[in-house]
Amino acid sequence: MLLYFILVLSTILTASIFDASVLPVEEDDDVVSRVTQGVKAADGQFPHKVQLWRKKRFLCGGSIIHKRYILTAAHCLYDFTNDTQSMRIIVGTNKLIDENATVYKPEAFILHEKYTPKLLDVKKNKTLQHNDIALIRLTQDIEFKDKVKPIELATTDNYYNEGNKLIITGWGRRGSNIPNLPNDMLMAMAKVYNFKDCVTTWNRVTRIDEGMFCYRGPKKESSCNGDSGGPVINVQHNRLVGIVKGSYLCGEDKYPSLLMKVSYYVPWIKKNMIED
């Protein structure tokens, strides 16, 4: 059964509702994946990228795919379905704290009906989340402009050939042992990892299905705590190919980073988007 969580409708806010002087940039311990070994992204370089906040906590990234919809990971929303009124979507900024950014409120969370909310635990040999994808429907249309635009979805498997160049983005720690979160968005280059090798490597821990794929960066670039739900784009065609799912450890070589495969879920996405 499709999970809908309806919020009280409200009007658009501006980011000035957050007092930057008192807003601690905290990450939620239950939400994993953040870009490591990255460099600062140019202002407005990724206009589709959004931030998901709950109260004063930065939770996850997401992508604008429609004037009314954000695409993200299901695990970013799963633990907060009883407190959805405190969620905010920030658009149009590379900064974690930006008083000039625009904030929208969600109307509904739409989690994949077959999402399995099990976290990675190597010692206990638990599986990763499968069907880790979700839509956020907003209370009103996003106003598109130079720094706020949707991104097109990858619709074929051609985008997932081994070696295809990718860009990953996010705000975060540059490694597992670095606690502070920079205010600026980071970006890093990576490449699609061989799928069979991805399956073999992760088979020690979990089952990789056809809705996932892996990537590696040339200098241990990867995702780490906080980038979950964010976009991974194909460099050549500027298409949204992946949703950040998680890494075993930030910047470690043992396990390639896992992504949800956007093209696999395009039918589900289209089915669950209500066109106005």
From TrEMBL:
<dbReference type="GO" id="GO:0006508">
    <property type="term" value="P:proteolysis"/>
</dbReference>
<keyword id="KW-0732">Signal</keyword>
<dbReference type="InterPro" id="IPR043504">
    <property type="entry name" value="Peptidase_S1_PA_chymotrypsin"/>
</dbReference>
<feature type="signal peptide">
    <location>
        <begin position="1"/>
        <end position="16"/>
    </location>
</feature>
<keyword id="KW-0645">Protease</keyword>
<dbReference type="InterPro" id="IPR018114">
    <property type="entry name" value="TRYPSIN_HIS"/>
</dbReference>
<feature type="domain" description="Peptidase S1">
    <location>
        <begin position="35"/>
        <end position="274"/>
    </location>
</feature>
<keyword id="KW-1015">Disulfide bond</keyword>
<dbReference type="Pfam" id="PF00089">
    <property type="entry name" value="Trypsin"/>
</dbReference>
<dbReference type="InterPro" id="IPR001314">
    <property type="entry name" value="Peptidase_S1A"/>
</dbReference>
<dbReference type="InterPro" id="IPR009003">
    <property type="entry name" value="Peptidase_S1_PA"/>
</dbReference>
<dbReference type="GO" id="GO:0008236">
    <property type="term" value="F:serine-type peptidase activity"/>
</dbReference>
<protein>
    <recommendedName>
        <fullName>Peptidase S1 domain-containing protein</fullName>
    </recommendedName>
</protein>
<dbReference type="InterPro" id="IPR001254">
    <property type="entry name" value="Trypsin_dom"/>
</dbReference>
<keyword id="KW-0378">Hydrolase</keyword>
<keyword id="KW-0720">Serine protease</keyword>
<dbReference type="InterPro" id="IPR033116">
    <property type="entry name" value="TRYPSIN_SER"/>
</dbReference>
